[in-house]
């Protein structure tokens, strides 16, 4: 296993995904500025090492709901999509403004990219998105990516775990890091089963591993559970990228992972030359 971890030091193009629950104070739902500042510093430090970096961030809808003082009881089946789309529009600009301010403290230029499922499924859209990412990375920019929830409907159901893997595949990244509120993959849900065993490395993503994610759910803030992370692992590894699931409790875990230290679960790349990204994405269902 050590040789796989050692290889992480040499990764050149890295996608980092952080979830809604990792960006907020659990007591209030407000943004955790200390976590955000550490996240940005870690990413800028990777950039300063000569690596290409992309951030996939959740949190727009949650921030919009917070700003508008909306509670779950204010949302029903009739108005759910409209309210979520409105909250995404409100929250996305505020979230991006916060990122922009912190990144600018490190003299780092960022760019906002909002994607939908159709960005990947449609050939021309995918081609244009690939070119945009490539140009931004060539210019030394750190793209900040989120789902375009404001104009989408079914995309509201596509989580950012999956989106980050799609981005990794689209830009030929060699590493995807999913930061979440769990340490990694377990043989069962550790919150329900005290006998669940931690899985340090997955060399081949078999059906047995995929089954470990079924029935798991994420936090009340985000949309992803272990199932979505394993779907992300399937996309990333087939596209030729290693993937890590690690706990975002301490964001500084990013540089520890990049140093090859033994944190989180490592999914080893198993590139499939016949992997059809648009076809896979078109078949995705919540």
UniProtKB/TrEMBL annotation:
Q: Which residues form the Aspartate/glutamate/uridylate kinase domain?
A: 12-247
Q: Write out the residues that bind substrate.
A: 58, 149, 160
Query: Pathway it belongs to?
Result: Amino-acid biosynthesis; L-proline biosynthesis; L-glutamate 5-semialdehyde from L-glutamate: step 1/2
- Please name the GO terms of the biological process aspect recorded for this protein, alphabetically: L-proline biosynthetic process
Q: Where are the transmembrane segments?
A: none
Location within or outside the cell:
Cytoplasm
Kindly give the Pfam families that the UniProt entry links to this protein: AA_kinase (PF00696)
UniProt keyword Ribosomal protein present = no
Supply the HAMAP family for this chain: ProB
- State the protein's name: Glutamate 5-kinase
């Amino acid at each position: 296993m050590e040789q796989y971890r050692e290889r992480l030091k040499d990764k050149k193009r890295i996608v980092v995904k952080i979830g809604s629950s990792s960006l907020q104070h659990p007591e209030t739902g407000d943004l955790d500025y200390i976590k955000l500042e550490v996240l940005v510093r870690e990413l800028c430090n990777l950039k300063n090492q000569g690596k290409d970096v992309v951030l996939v961030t959740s949190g727009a809808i949650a921030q919009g709901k917070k700003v508008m003082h909306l509670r779950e009881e204010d949302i029903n089946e009739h108005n759910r999509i409209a309210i979520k789309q409105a909250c995404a529009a409100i929250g996305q600009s505020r979230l991006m403004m916060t990122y922009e301010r912190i990144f600018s403290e490190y003299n780092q230029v960022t760019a906002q990219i909002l994607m939908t499922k159709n960005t990947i499924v449609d050939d021309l859209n995918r081609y244009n998105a690939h070119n945009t990412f490539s140009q931004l990375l060539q210019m030394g920019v750190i793209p900040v990516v989120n789902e375009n929830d404001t104009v989408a409907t079914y995309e509201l159901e596509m989580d950012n775990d999956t989106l980050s893997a799609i981005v990794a595949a689209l830009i030929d990244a060699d590493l995807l890091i999913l930061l979440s509120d769990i340490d990694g993959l377990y043989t069962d849900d550790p919150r329900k089963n005290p006998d669940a065993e931690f899985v340090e490395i997955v060399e081949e993503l078999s059906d047995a591993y995929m089954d470990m994610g079924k029935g798991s759910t994420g936090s009340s803030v985000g949309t992803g559970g272990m199932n979505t992370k394993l779907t992300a692992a399937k996309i990333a590894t087939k596209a030729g990228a290693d993937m890590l699931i690690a706990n975002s409790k301490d964001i500084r875990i990013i540089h520890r992972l990049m140093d090859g230290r033994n944190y989180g679960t490592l999914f080893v790349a198993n590139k499939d030359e016949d992997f059809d990204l648009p076809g896979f994405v078109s078949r995705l269902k919540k």
